Amino acid sequence: GEDVEQSLFLSVREGDSSVINCTYTDSSSTYLYWYKQEPGAGLQLLTYIFSNMDMKQDQRLTVLLNKKDKHLSLRIADTQTGDSAIYFCAESKRDSSASKIIFGSGTRLSIRP
Amino acid sequence: NAGVTQTPKFRILKIGQSMTLQCAQDMNHNYMYWYRQDPGMGLKLIYYSVGAGITDKGEVPNGYNVSRSTTEDFPLRLELAAPSQTSVYFCASSYGTGKRGTEAFFGQGTRLTVV
Asked: What is the full per-residue pLDDT of chain B (115 aa) written as tens digits?
């Protein structure tokens, strides 16, 4: 099964808050990330959280981590049209001696007026 | 720093042809990755490398090969192109250690179509 799971689509009204959810399977993950992909572009790191934290806030972004349920969420306050993108949840996962990054399938956020 | 540079940006291949996707980074990152992103889908890890001379398979390695002779370069080779390899390919690199852990920096992608 998938290591990192996300819903595929989310539609919100401009000015409302967006909440994008993600579940992961590896309880030993060290870092969890949110990446943003705008149309025709590569991925860019939006924010990240270390596994010993519950919450991290960065301007309009709030990341919540529930380690017990292996659930990560990204809240975008006052969502704007420029927030339209695909948002990927990712975990850094240890595999023997190496770390690799595993991505979810991405959530496409669309903003309606 | 240029970051992660991928070439070419676009390519059309015929079934059975071969090609190499180039990836270079100038950030002295140890870790490098190749992902593919199929239309409307997420990223699947093809191969990764934790340093020069070391490569390892990801989730979908079949039909691909990689090499890592230098820290900077991590080319991806398709030997016998198949329509199933039509995708957008992303190269990424990361420090692998430190405060930001394994934050990955991505190239702009190579859009490959196999006909």
From this structure: 789 999 999 999 999 999 999 999 999 998 899 999 987 777 888 999 989 999 999 889 999 999 999 999 999 999 899 999 999 999 999 887 555 556 788 999 999 999 9
Distance from CA of B106 to the nearest CA of A (A): 6
CB-CB neighbors (< 8 A) of A6 in chain B = 42
For A4, the closest chain B residue by CA position comes to: B42
CA distance A20 to B69: 40
Residues 6+ apart with CB under 8 A from B102: A30, A31, A92, A99, A100, A101, B31, B94, B95, B96
Instruction: In whole angstroms, give the CA distance from residue B25 to residue B2.
Output: 7
Closest CA to B24 of B78, B55, B58, B69: B69
Sequence-distant (6+) residues with CB within 8 A of B25 are: B3, B4, B5, B32, B72, B74, B91, B93, B105
CB B31 within 8 A of CB B48: yes
Query: Residue A57: how many CA atoms within 13 Å on its side-chain side?
Result: 3
B90 in A contact zone (CB under 8 Å): yes
Distance CA B92, CA A59 (A): 27
Tell me which chain A residue has its CA closest to the CA of residue B103.
A45
